[in-house]
Amino acid sequence: MQLIGLTGGIGSGKTTVAHIFEVIGVPVYPSDLRARQLMEKDGALASAIAHQFGSRSYHPDGTLNVAHLADLAFSDPARLRELNALVHPAVASDLESWMTQQAGPYVLMETALLRETMAMTHLFRVIAVMADADLRKERVRFRDGLEPNQVQQRMSRQLSDAELNSLADYIIVNNGTYSLIDQCLAIHNSLLNAIERKGQEC
Ligand code: ATP
User: Fold this and answer.
1) Whose CA is closest to atom 9 on ligand 1?
2) Alpha carbon separation from 90 to 31, 52, 63, 97, 200 (Å, rounded)
3) pTM of the predicted model as reported, rounded to 2 decimal places
4) Based on the structure, what is the number of domains in the chain?
5) CA-CA distance, 136 to 65, in Å (whole number)?
6) Domain housing 88
7) Closest ligand 1 atom to the C-alpha of 32?
8) Mean pLDDT in order along the chain per 10 residues (202 residues)
9) Chosen domain end from 71, 101, 131
10) What is the number of the ligand 1 atom nearest to the C-alpha of 12?
11) Which of 52, 82, 101 is the last residue of a domain?
12) What is the distance in A from the centroid of ligand 1 to the CA of 23?
């Protein structure tokens, strides 16, 4: 079973595309959601986070204090690396055991952090979802109520379109110009062919 990365910047449409692949029958590992669940439910990870980032990292009911951690991690790159060093191995081992429960020639890993994911695990191919910045800001404003400058701030911390272009094997354009379903189906077929060819080589 091959692991395929599905990435894109804020509001690009990763989750929307992930849903289309799920409808085709492709299992999707939602990295951000799983990481968040692990940070709350994995006792060893939660203790390590509380130890290194303070007991304020969790609310009294055990849920993650995202604002506290984001304040620490996004104001200091060293602290962000520290947090990633705790969370990524837990995600990698969760992904590995999740994959053993899936069926099919490939699974998708939806991730906003492509470089970190590539450092953590081997991706057979990478799909990047891209959309114009103004459209992404408008969609996120509608979805989360964030102002365009707040979205811009987050965009500036993420990979640029040029970086995504250089790292991705497939680009999905989500500007409303081309059918998302057609693009997903074309990529699905191409992946099946590539995986079959790889199988024949081995
Ligand atoms: P984030 O990284 O911020 O979680 P994302 O890349 O997963 O975002 P989505 O949540 O899939 O992006 O899409 C952002 C918003 O734009 C959602 O509200 C979604 O419904 C909407 N959206 C995505 N694609 C389209 C489209 N082609 N037409 C209209 N709305 C869209």
Assistant:
1) 13
2) 11, 16, 18, 11, 33
3) 0.93
4) 2
5) 27
6) 35-101
7) 4
8) 96 97 97 94 95 94 91 84 92 95 97 90 96 96 91 89 96 96 98 94 82
9) 101
10) 6
11) 101
12) 17
